[in-house]
Specification:
Its cofactor is pyridoxal 5'-phosphate. Belongs to the class-V pyridoxal-phosphate-dependent aminotransferase family. Csd subfamily. Residues 29-403 form the Aminotransferase class V domain. With 418 residues, this protein is of the alpha/beta class. It folds into two domains: 9-39 and 302-414, Alpha-Beta Complex (Aspartate Aminotransferase, domain 1), CATH 3.90.1150.10; 46-299, Type I PLP-dependent aspartate aminotransferase-like (Major domain) (Aspartate Aminotransferase, domain 2). The protein contains 14 helices and 17 strands. The protein has helices spanning 9-13, 41-53, 64-84, 98-113, 132-141, 159-166, 188-196, 217-220, 245-250, 285-301, 303-321, 353-362, 375-381, 398-414, and strands spanning 22-23, 26-27, 29-30, 92-95, 119-123, 144-148, 172-176, 201-205, 224-228, 239-243, 261-264, 269-271, 327-330, 343-348, 365-366, 368-370, 387-391. The strands form five sheets. Strands 4-10-9-8-7-5-6 form a seven-stranded mixed beta sheet, sandwiched between helices. Strands 13-14-17-16 form a four-stranded antiparallel beta sheet, with helices on one face. It is globular. The relative contact order is 0.16.
Length: 418
């Protein structure tokens, strides 16, 4: 694809086997990429190739296929480091997912550094993965968990609330770069800069940003950045924690066993070098290799191009819903598309989101309905029991959105709404 061309979702869909299937007897329209992305054949083939051609454990085998497996697995870390602007693979710890990455920080760094009375600062738009670990840490240590409130529109973080909370000199500030419900893109570079003035360590939840836009962790300046492969064309069961070398070297690993040690005697042990000291036992080898293939695919398109494509789709969706009656759309609107990711959450008056999702399914359209693992945001801020959510990716086009809007009309017809 030439650099000056826009994304042709129709061509891209040819790389994704799942788009050959039907759902409810109709071609599938997949609008749930915020939950998990679909996988191109290049990623699927990389897993098959590993098991068919060079299945072996990594790091210790000196025979050919073991060395090849080691190289492919290690190279995938180099690809990820380059994608997110990390200095080297020493900054990249493979884990199961974003949730495990954040829990690793809360358990290792948190247990060693948070004391009774210390403050931990998160926001009202966090996914449970960037909320519950800090609740647990605060309870264990007797710390105080504070929240950055949303502004009056319930669309963006209230920067006055952020600055007020910084006066407590929080030891940890943990925020999402992009909300999985509102689609709001937070200025994590600014948040990090201001938090550092108060001596805070900063963790950024990048689960909803790394798949969809350029990310540069060094430019952001954060200490930690967490992401999941399965949201960025890769397989489930593997994700990554980025950390600065200084902070990762200061942390103790959570698990002991093979591969994370350099030497063991009957009474003592010493840790392996970064990042391996955090990766005990046999790794998710095929997951890492397939993650590398996913990154290759993303790079072949270009993250800036993916971002522009999703902005176009999101704007089309918001414009299409603008004059639809009996519907409420949550998050930044079309005039703030620069701070809106490819997520559009909405509610239809008098219709439960689960009913909406079921009717969409009947039309061959996959969307998400519920609290989206962000219950405080949905129930306490938006004051909804659940919301419906469409989320877009590089394989979606405007026709997919038009079908979704038509499905909303079908919902309204069934429930006899205007």
């Amino acid at each position: 694809m030439a650099a000056d061309q826009e994304i042709n979702a129709g061509d891209i869909k040819k790389d994704f086997p799942i788009f050959k299937i039907k759902m409810s007897g109709k071609p599938i329209v997949y609008l749930d990429s915020a939950a998990t992305s679909q996988k191109p054949k290049q990623v699927i083939d990389s897993i098959v190739k590993f098991y068919s051609e060079y299945n072996a454990n990594i790091h210790r085998g000196i025979y050919d296929i073991a060395e090849r497996a080691t190289d492919e697995y290690t190279n995938s870390k180099g690809k990820l480091a380059k994608l997110i602007g990390a200095k080297s693979i020493r900054n990249i710890v493979y884990v199961r997912n974003t949730t495990e990455a954040i829990n690793l920080v809360a358990l290792s760094w948190g247990n060693a550094n948070i004391e009774k009375g210390d403050h931990i600062l998160i926001s009202d738009m966090e996914h449970h993965s960037n909320l519950v670990p800090w609740q647990l840490l605060a309870k264990r240590k007797g710390a105080v968990l504070d929240y950055i409130k949303l502004d009056k529109s319930s669309e963006k973080l209230d920067m006055d609330s952020f600055k007020e909370n910084l006066e407590n000199d929080p030891k940890m500030v943990a925020v999402t770069q992009a909300s999985n419900v509102l689609g709001t893109i937070n200025d994590v570079k600014y948040i990090t800069k201001e938090a550092k003035k108060h001596g805070s360590v900063v963790l950024v939840d990048g689960a909803q940003s790394a798949p969809h836009m350029p990310v540069d962790v060094q430019s952001i300046g954060c200490d930690f950045f967490a992401l999941s492969a399965h949201k960025m064309l890769g397989p489930t069961g593997i994700g990554a924690l980025y950390g600065t070398e200084e902070i990762l070297n200061s942390m103790e690993p959570l698990f002991g066993g093979g591969d994370m040690i350099s030497a063991v005697t009957r009474q003592t042990h010493s840790w392996n070098s970064l990042p391996w000291k955090f990766e005990a036992g046999t790794s998710n080898i095929e997951g890492g290799i397939a993650f590398g293939a996913a990154i290759d695919y993303l790079n072949s398109i270009g993250m800036e191009k993916i971002r522009r494509h999703e902005e176009k789709l999101t704007k089309h969706a918001l414009e299409s819903l603008e004059n639809v009656k009996n519907i409420e759309v949550y998050g930044p609107k079309k005039d703030e598309i620069n701070i809106k990711s490819g997520v559009v959450s909405f509610g239809i008056k008098g219709v439960h989101p689960h009913d909406v999702a079921q009717i969409f399914n009947n039309e061959g359209i996959a969307i998400r309905a519920g609290h989206h693992c962000a219950m405080p945001l949905v129930t306490e801020v938006l004051r909804q029991g659940a919301v419906s959510r469409m989320s877009f990716y590089l394989y979606n086009d405007e026709d997919d959105i038009d079908k979704a809007v038509a499905a909303i009309d079908e919902v309204k017809r069934i429930f006899k709404l205007e």
